[in-house]
Every structure is written in C-alpha cells, then in structure tokens.
Amino acid sequence: MNKPVHAKFGMGAPLRRIEDASLITGKGHYTDDWSAPGMLHGYVLRSPHANARFTLGDLEAARSHPGVHLVLAASDIGHLKPLRTVIAHAVPDEAKKADSALPILCEEQVRHVGDAIAFIVADSVQIARDASELIEVDFEPFDAVVDTFGALSDDAPLVYPESGTNVAFNGGGGDAAATQAVFADAPRVSEVTIVNNRVVSMYLEPRSCLAEWVDAEDRWSVVVCSQGAHGMRGALAGVFGVAPDKIRVRTPDVGGGFGTKVFPFREYPLAMEAARRLGRPVKWTSDRTEHFMVDSHGRDNVSTARMAMDDEGRFLALDVHIRAAMGAYLHYFGPMIPNLGVIMSTGVYDIPAMVVKVTGIYTNTTPVDAYRGAGRPEASYLIERLVEQCASDMGLPREEIRRRNFIKPEQMPYKTAGGRLYDTGEFDGHLTAALERAGWADFDTRAAEARSRGKVRGIGFATYVEACAFAGSEPAFIELQADGSFILKIGTQSNGQGHATAYAQLAAEKLGIDYEKVFVHQGDTDELEKGGGTGGSRSVPLGGVSAVRAGEALADKLKKLASDKLEASAGDIELVDGEARIAGTDRAISFADLAASAPSPDDIKADGNFEQAEATYPNGTHICEVEIDPDTGVTEVIAYTIVDDFGVTVNPILLAGQVHGGVVQGIGQALHEQVVFDDDGQLLTATLMDYAVPRADTVPSLGFETRNVPSTTNVLGIKGAGEAGSIGSCAAVMNAVNHALRTEYGAADIDMPATPIRVWQAIQASKG
Fold it and tell me: Mean per-residue pLDDT for 407-432?
C-alpha cells in the first residue's frame, strides 16, 4: 500500500465543499426554481387501476374549462415514439415478443397504477387538476399480478396476454456444464433463497422540467433535473425523431439522483410537445406521491443461490437463479441491471466455476431500473447471505470461512468466473482491520450486558467488491478567464457528490491557484459538445483524470506565454498563487495579464481526456452491531464500522460523505424501506406516512477509515466510491439481525426489511 501526499489544494487534500455555502443558505437553483414569461403548468391524468382496458369520453369539457390551454390524449401524439429499453434482451423461446415499450400516453390499456392517460396544460397546476376530473374514462379492470415469484405460476394474470408468459427475458452467464459437474461430486452444498425488497429512490428533489419552444432557433430549450444533459438530450431527440441539436438541455442544481434521474420519463416529451403547440413555456413538477407511483423503482429480486464446498469449507462452484421484477414495462436500462449482478456474483471469493440464470419478470407494477449500485448491491447481498449460511452449515466462524476463500493478493490480477478482471485487492487486510476496530473479539461481553437489560445483540459483517467506472472516457475542457480565474467544463452532472470541489482541486493543483478560483460548469448541451453523465461511480475516476490532464495542458501553455513575456525559458516558469513566476525570483506576471495578452484564445484554453479500458474495483468490509427489543421487535443499529479500499483518495471529506450516504440508504433498505402493492396492484406505500426511511436518530455515528491499494487500471489509482456504501451495508445489517435471532432464539433467517413486526414474529415463531 502507499499513502499519497497531497498538496495544499490537490489530490488527497481535505477541502471543504465549494458548493455548500450556496446550497445550505437557500441559494441553490433547482429545476422547479426556473420560470419563464407566460409559463403554463402541466398535470398528468393517471390510471387508478393496475390492469385495465379503457376508453376516453369527450374531452371538450376539460378543454373548455377556464384556464385550460391544451389537453393531450394518445390520439393527439401518434408521432411521438414510446420510451424503449436501450438494452438488448433475449425473449424466452416459448414466448411471443411483446411490445413492452412505455407509451408516452396510454391509448387503450394501462398496466400499472399511475400509468399516464392524458396531459392537461393550464394556467396553474390546480386548474389542470380540476380539469382532469372532467375527463370521463371508462375502465374495464382485469386481475393484476404484483408478486415477483407468483407471476411465474401457471394461473397468474398476464401483463402481456399476447406473449403467453410473464417472463420478459432470459439472461445470465458462466459455465453451466462445468458448474453442474462440480455440484454433482461436491461433498457439501449450502443454499439460500432470499428476497431483495423493492425500494424507491427517495431523492429530496422530485423530478421537474420546464420546456420552451424557441421559434427563432427552431428548437426546444428544456431545463430538467438529470444525471447528464447530453444523455437526456439524446433520449428526448429519439422520442421526437429529430437530431439532438434540435434540443438544448440544461440541468441546474440537482437534489439527488441515485440512478433514477438518468432516465427520460414521459412527462418531459409531453411538456415539450405542449410548449411547441402553444408557443408558451410549460412546466411540470412531480409531487411526492407521483414519485412513489411512477419514478422507476429499484431492486425487487427473488434469488436462489447454492454453493458447492469441499469438506474444509472451500468454495468450489456457485449456482444462482435471479428472478428480477421488471414491472409493467422494460425500462431504459432495466434488463441490464440484474445482468450487472451476474458479473459480480462471486464477490471477493476464489470460486472456480459459476453459472447464473436471470429471469426477467413482468408484473403490474411501476417499472424497475437502476438504483444506487444497479445490480452490484443485489449481487453482494446474495453472496454474503449465502456465505453466512455456508459458515453455519460447516460449523465454521464467519470470518474463518471467508479467509479460507478470499482471492489472495498474490493471485492478482484475477479473472473471475463472471468475467471480471480484478487488478488489486487485499480483502483479508481490511477484514482484519475492521474486526479489530469493531471490537469483534469482545462482542460476547457487550451481548451479555445487553441481555441484562432485556435486549438481544447481534453482530454481522459483509466483505464486498464492486465494479465501477466502467471502460470509457469523460473529456474535460478548461479556459483562463479575464479576471485570472478558470472555467472547467465537463459532461458529468453533480447530484450532490461535490463535483465542483473535486474537479476544481485536481485542476487547481496543476495551475498553482486556489481551488475556489476554478469554476466547474456542467449541465448545458450548448456549452459542451458531448458528455457521458454521472452514473456507475464514473465521474471522478474518469472525469477527474481528464481534469488533471486539462490542467496540466493549460499549465504548459501558460508557462510558454509567461516565458515570452518574462523573457525566460518555459522550464524556469512556475505557477504559484495565481501568477506565473520565474523560479527563485520576484519577476512574475498575473494570470489576468496573461489572459489579456494572449495572442489567440486557443493559447489560454486546453482539454484533457482519459480513456479507461477496464473497470475499477472498490472493495471493503462493513461491520454492523444491532440491538433488538424482543418485546417490540424494534432493531437499533448500535455501531457501524467500515474499512474500505478506494485506491487513492481525492478528498477525504467528500469520500466520507459518499460512504455515509450509501450506508444510510443500505440501512434504510435493510430495516425500514419497502414498496408494497396490494393484490389489485394498488400502491400502499404512496406517501411518507406509509413508506419508512431512516432518520438521523436511527443511524449511529459511522466509523470509517480507508486501507487503500491504488488501482492499476486508473491512471491516478482511483477506484470510485459513489455506490460502495450501499453495496456493503444491506448484508452487514441483515447478517447482524439474523445473528441475533439465530443465536438467542434459534430463529430462521428473515428477509429485508427487518421491520419490528417481522422481527417480533420471528421471535414468536421460534418459541413454538
């Protein structure tokens, strides 16, 4: 391991976030803060049924309602293409291919509660809502299917009857023949079937957009909360069948994304169509219930996993079947998400053979897509729950069975059975450090003390690895301004991660300037030709390297300019505190003067680009300690310890924030959060009165440290950290809960979320 030494503003410096002062004083500017002269408001009439055919009555009453300017139904927008998944998928042999694209407005069939039927544009949202109640809709409801596993039964209602099955696609990977051969002769086999519960993104800022038709430019201008303006522009252009340059997309401050704001949603093209027809700006903003109903959900897998072992508990082969709910439509990246789990199924373990089968399943529910980690948290949760079962079946300590099976540092680079190439990793190293920091050896003393108070303690851990910053690039462009400051443009999109700080400090180190003098611009397709957006923990590992290279390139140009002005060799010029200086002298020229004297604009601008050929692999160990009240079933997280390997740390403050946020989301899924539909497909968790999220008083102070081994696939050694907290946390929490129940009561393991009623019922069942 090596520990980077940081400069004042450079790599590794614990700098405070530049953006925070604006955000915490209420000066942030989010999409719903935007307005335009003559702006109108849109409202979507949605289906109250999960599965129904319908006919629309006369729309005249709604169209003539005072303050209403436009009512759109499916028959009015036949030229708009539906929102299709961009992921190729294999339809099962026994099925006829169904058109599972999400229509901008449903024409005669709705497939989940909240499906869009009409779009009303009026002077205010309330007027549009009132007018929607004047639209007569005649529904013919049918039975719905909402249960992921139950959708595969022979008598289940079909989401697409013409298909003949609720199987949406088949996928997977590995070597089935080799794996089956190992299982046939394996001395020991352990098995688990677990549910990875459905959740919502629960970002602070609901989705919003403001669309204008700019007649003079013959194009749209769209302000929308997104995770990448360029990706959003391309998707919207596809709906309208136009070239991307016919749409300008801007994304201002964004209050959380977690994957969901990557995607185009039907309200955006509806607002654009209305704006073009009316010649006036149209805004649409979601309310919280709409967020629950129609924004793509995450997770929702039912998976069975088996591990073949020898008599010493060494892993020989892994066999997994993932049944992944897709909801009523195949969403943008939907079919890809469980298959991302396939490639990481073996986790940190040396497992020679593997086969994973994926069955995508239609249900009459909100579509499922990427949510923080996108398939990798599901894979980590499954393998860590299975390994826990293996330890129990073998009678081995939980840490010992992991140590016997970890991929060892001397095996790196290591090609997994899932096809990934791990370049570095010292898994036993951070496990040992985490166990020591968490006081693992002294747990029995703490458990006895809790027992004396009538409480039950459990401790559990998870050791994870994830793939992120997948192969690709993210160019950065930097330019010196007249006042001596710099503008750095890049096509990622901050959703709260602190990009303005991270990119600025990396570029500032090369330019010898205070990082607060580097202003990061994102989120405007007119400012930048292309951009990859934010997702998969790619922004800093890829964009950060590009920012460094852009800073280096511009520094060389500024030294050359200064050498001409100061009549010195460029090699003798240093950039310090906002000026170019002949080293060892007081002769200098300010950046502002260099900008003013530059012969050409190209002399004060530069770009940088880093293209990465392989993913990076952050990894770590999370240890959770819980205390259960057996009378109420309430579980409290008492302590939480994290030792992570992120390669090289750019900014420890930003890093801790990312890890803390991911862990809290994982704790939320493990203990509190679950989307629930009734048998008719009605969403029972449609408000924050019904959908529980973690709160400040339910999460302890998190112990976090790094034990970094630099990545060899990333030029700066960075591995990425945006999703890691959510990948290690669910299994750590549930392994702790189940340890408490198993040790104290001999209870069977339970699934997420470990709500008070579920924990209490497990305790009661164990008593016979």
Answer: 97
